[in-house]
Design goal:
By secondary structure, the chain is of the alpha/beta class. 39% of the residues lie in helices and 12% in strands. It has 13 helices and ten strands. The strands form two sheets. The protein has an eight-stranded parallel sheet. Strands 1-2 form a two-stranded antiparallel sheet.
Length: 338
């Protein structure tokens, strides 16, 4: 069902769909056996990349993934992340050497593995020198605990800095970036994706269905667990979200005209960009998974792609909050005043 693409310049081949495990555990689907069945179905369909994070259900997602991979670990390119707060105590989060070296061991235990293929820094940490972070990750590569280094939702300038640090300071190179990207969230087309192409980075975007907006469900009746946790982002009556609501209606009409489900059109759109390696799907149920698997084979015509551009112009985030991360230079007023 899936196709395979090179993972940047690493020589590794990966499926063009990645199974995201954020919805496994108590903040999504708490049924471990059901989660394992979903993972096995994805693997049987040809998906060979699983992406999780320590912070997803506070380690429970990693535990479910680890249990599911019993006997199948060698077949999977396994990715997880570090950065999020993993407890109430001081220094149980962030991008410091102290935390990374501690937390990777906990992730390895939860995942029931001796190595992690792709260890990603989940978000930037302005309080930590990037070289400090890369130094710790480089040591873990050399110790054999991780194979490759990745980032998630990093600014283009930080991606370039990471490449510079690898060259000038002898650090291991960041080989992958995980940004938000969908028909409604296209800001990364301006700089991030061209930068990734220039440096040969793999790109595995999260939320290609825009957090559910592109799921094909009626917006008036749409509810999700994420909507409960981040109500402002999912309030379809909020002024900041109204452009998305209108765009979804137009995109649904276009999908209907093209004879596609909105889900398939949304995933195919992301996979069409030449910088994209593999799109992350995050099913909570088997039904969700089945509705997305066939998208790996869908090709959109130039006419459909042009009409998507008319609805949401290239390089545009209809709601700026969907960027996933805004640097302190934007969020901290003291950085803009003498």
């Amino acid at each position: 069902m899936v196709e395979y693409r090179p993972f940047g310049r690493t020589g590794v081949q990966v499926s063009n769909l990645t199974l995201g495990a954020m919805n496994f555990g108590r903040t999504g689907n708490p049924d471990h056996e059901d989660g394992i069945r979903i993972i096995h179905r994805a693997l049987d369909a040809g998906i060979n990349v699983i992406d999780t994070a320590d912070v997803y259900s506070q380690g429970e997602s990693e535990e479910i993934v680890g249990e599911a991979l019993d006997g199948r670990r060698d077949d999977v390119f396994l990715a997880t992340k570090v950065h999020g707060q993993m407890g109430t105590k001081l220094n149980q989060g962030g991008n410091s050497r102290r935390w990374i070296v501690t937390e990777v061991e906990r992730s390895l235990r939860r995942l029931r593995t001796d190595w992690i293929d792709l260890y990603q820094v989940h978000r930037p940490d302005p309080a930590t020198d990037f070289d400090e972070t890369l130094g710790a990750l480089s040591d873990l590569v050399r110790a054999g605990k991780i194979r490759y280094i990745g980032t998630s939702t990093y600014e283009p300038s930080a991606i370039v800095e990471g490449q510079w640090l690898a060259e000038r300071r002898g650090r291991e190179r960041v080989v992958a970036e995980q940004p938000p990207y969908s028909m409604l969230v296209r800001g990364v087309e301006r700089e991030m994706l061209p930068v990734a192409e220039r440096y040969g980075l793999a790109v595995i975007p999260w939320s290609p269905l825009a957090g559910g907006y592109l799921s094909g469900q009626r917006l008036e009746a749409w509810k999700s667990l994420r909507a409960e946790r981040i109500p402002g982002r999912y309030d379809t009556s909020a002024p900041a979200n109204l452009p998305k609501v209108e765009a979804v209606r137009k995109l649904q009409a276009l999908a209907d005209e093209a004879g596609l489900s909105l889900i398939h059109m949304a995933l195919a759109f992301v996979l069409n960009h030449p910088a994209i390696t593999s799109a992350i799907i995050g099913p909570r149920t088997m039904e969700h998974l089945e509705s997305q698997l066939e998208a790996a084979k869908v090709t959109l015509s130039a006419d459909v792609l042009d009409r998507i551009d008319e609805i949401v112009p290239p390089g545009t985030n209809l709601n700026p909050a969907d960027a996933g991360y805004l640097p302190p230079s934007v969020t901290d007023s003291s950085r803009r005043r003498r």
